[in-house]
Design a protein that fits this description.
mainly beta; 8% helix; 3-stranded antiparallel sheet; 1 helix
Length: 157
């Protein structure tokens, strides 16, 4: 995956969990944050160098999307939607009794009205949830908050 990145200095997250302010090319820009929750409880970005991608298409509210934070050693991915893109690519390569002739759907609702990151339909039906973890520590705990999941009954088939 070849991605063009721009550098900026992170200012703050906005009240909306999907927006932040970043200083880019000598001006403050409103940027999109592709995360289902606020980042501040997990990582302090204020004043840090971040990497951004330019948003494609017209009619976008922001010009950039927050992508990663630069550290001394490497980069930490902040745009966790890339986790799903990478996983889809890898799932598409798999073969075997369950995946060989399967179709893989992203963000599909099942007949039980459960939305999953991936729904694999083939000899067996497989639901896949993908989660990315942001942490500067060697050990990260997941889930970081209490969540409840729907358990599906095993089918007799």
């Amino acid at each position: 995956m070849n991605i063009e990145l721009e550098s900026g200095i992170f200012i703050e997250e906005c009240k909306s969990r999907f927006l932040c302010k970043v200083f880019i090319k000598e001006q403050e820009e409103l940027c999109y944050v592709s995360s289902s929750l606020k980042l501040a409880p997990f990582i302090d970005l204020r004043g840090k160098e971040v990497l951004l991608t330019k948003n494609k298409g017209t009619g976008k509210r922001t010009k950039y999307t927050l992508y990663a934070i630069k550290t001394k050693e490497s980069q930490i991915l902040l745009n966790l939607s890339f986790v799903n893109k990478l996983l889809f690519t890898e799932l598409s390569k798999l073969e075997g009794p369950y995946l060989g002739s399967s179709q893989i759907f992203s963000e599909k609702k099942t007949s039980e009205n459960l939305k999953s990151d991936f729904y694999i339909e083939g000899e067996k039906k497989i639901i896949v949830e993908a989660k990315g973890i942001i942490s500067l520590n060697e050990v990260a705990l997941f889930p970081a908050m209490k969540v409840e999941r729907k358990l599906l009954k095993k089918s007799s088939a």
